[in-house]
Amino acid sequence: MTEGAEAFAARIWEALGGPPRALDSLEITGTGALPSAFAVTDLAAGSIGAAALALAEIAGARGPVRVDRRLAGLWFATSLRPEGWTVPAPWDPVAGDYATRDGWIRLHTNAPHHRAAAERVLGAQADRAGMARAVAGWAKTELEAAILAEGGCAAEMRRLSEWAAHPQGRAAMAEALVACAPASDRTASCWAPRPERPLAGLRVLDLTRVLAGPVATRFLAGFGADVLRIDPPDWNEAALEPEVTLGKTCARLDLRQNPDRATFEALLGGADVLVHGYQPGALDGLGYGEAARRALAPGLVEVCLDAYGWTGPWAGRRGFDSLVQMSCGIAQAGQDWRKAEAPVPLPVQALDHATGYMMAAAILRLLARRLSDGTGGRARLSLARTAALLVAAGPGAPDQPPVAEAADDRAPEIEATAWGPARRLLPPATVPGAPMRWARAARRLGDDAPAWAADRMD
Q1: Are 223 and 202 spatial neighbours (Cβ–Cβ below 8 Å)?
Q2: Average model confidence (pLDDT) for the chain?
Q3: Model pLDDT, residue 281
Q4: How does residue 288 score in pLDDT terms, banded at 50, 70 and 90?
Q5: At what angle do helices 350-373 and 383-392 cross, to 10 degrees?
Q6: Binning pLDDT at 50, 70 and 90, where does residue 457 land?
Q7: Which residue, 384, 388, 222, 214, is CA-closest to 308?
């Protein structure tokens, strides 16, 4: 096993409270590293390995759990290979890094309301050149604050040392990597793992969006979970939907409307697992605080995430992987490593993906506990805490060859996605007796009725 990947898997497994002896069954094979100042590929293999170990535990699998290091790195970029069509561009035309008069700032404008917030501060801009001129006269701290005040998303670039001394950096580092809390309420669900398809019949209500949560639920769907993703009527993720809706049911509900609220409450009442990434207090504001959720679904396993951590002055602050990389010093360290003139982020959205696999592992560990005593539980994770895990591991291994895709890395089956035919990379993890495969092709958000698989009329 690669030492770096082994160390990541061990740290994550310890944070999950997993039995140490399970690590003996994990085999990480292959070589290669994504180009980065940090051990990104080790993080990829280690986080996927932890999720696979948790799956093996709940499935009662015997034998080695294997992770292909190279495939893990590729999956952290994209698993999809379209045939005859192209995935939309992942970024809004004016999203990106900009030079201010005293440093760099990143604007995250993929969501229309986030772009509108930035443009209320900087003026409407047709392209990056116009946005660059508008940003150039600002101080980075002042611009960040102004955009956040308008409800937008931005992050000034800091050094690792600056983040380590920042109140939010200290708060995030002090948090548990995976903060688990037991619950005393008991479920009446009779769900139990099944041979060969261990998560079949497990009902997972997915209220997450870009990107960690959808990665977590895609992993669960790969082992048979009935994942029902709910989005509001006006939300779309054109560039990500083909990647992360694999194996899922995708429906829309407006939780401000009474009929949709009634549907949601019925769905939650039938759920085994709830996954969400709402800002703290958002579900409470809709009338679905923790007490209400547990009243509707006793014994619920609930896993949630946020960007910057659950304590400290930025608790609940809006953020995305690319913004956290700027705030916590990763982009600056990348710039120094490459001796570049501009910020250099990680080569993939590694904080999102790694947190997603850790979320999946947390769900499975909580389910293992529920199978033993019937009680539910909760886990909380954050991108900033995952960033701290990556930074603490130090630089990546310089002697590894680049990660490269081979001709036989793609699964032979054609996936009939909603956009056209495609192939997927082979799964990055192998669990004995429980192949990872998805029963449904990727689909558009809102393609389905809001119903569990057993209640659907396909």
Answers
A1: no
A2: 95
A3: 81
A4: very high
A5: 110
A6: low
A7: 384
Place of tokens 């139990």: 192
Percent of the chain clearing pLDDT 90 (strictly above): 90
DSSP helix/strand/coil, 78: coil
The whole-angstrom separation of Cα 283 and Cα 384 is: 22
DSSP-based helix, strand, coil % in the chain, nearest 5: 40, 15, 45
Q: Rounded to two decimals, what is the model's pTM? A: 0.97
**Rg from Cα positions in the chain:** 21
Positive or negative, the CA dihedral 141, 143, 148, 154 is negative
**Strand partners of residue 154:** 107
Tokens coding 102? 């005293």
Q: Residue 34 has which token pair?
A: 């994504």
- Strand order in 96-100's β-sheet? 96-100, 103-107, 154-156
Check residue 458 and give its pLDDT.
55
Q: Cα-flanking dihedrals φ and ψ of residue 156, to 5°?
A: -75, 155
- Local structure of 27: helix, strand or coil: strand
pLDDT at 296 over 80: yes
CA distances (Å), origin 124, targets 59, 94, 101, 128: 54, 10, 20, 11
Q: Would the CA dihedral through 244, 247, 252, 256 be positive or negative?
A: negative
> Tell me, what's the pLDDT at 1?
43
Would you say residue 256 has pLDDT above 70? yes
Q: How many CB atoms lie within 10 A of CB 149?
A: 11
Do strands 273-276 and 203-207 pair parallel, antiparallel, or not at all (unpaired)?
parallel
> Mean of the pLDDT values across residues 73-84?
97
| Closest by CA position to 359, among listed 405, 401, 301 | 301
Contact between residue 226 and residue 201 where contact means Cβ atoms under 8 Å apart: yes
Would you say the C-alpha torsion 177, 307, 162, 46 has a positive or negative sign?
Answer: positive
Find tokens 């688990």 and name the residue. Answer: 180
Residue count of the chain, please give it. 458
Amino acid at 249: T
- 164 CB burial (10 A radius; 0-12, 13-18, 19+): middle
Element (H, E) at 220: helix 212-221
What is the distance between the alpha carbons of residues 161 and 344, in angstroms, rounded to a whole number? Answer: 17
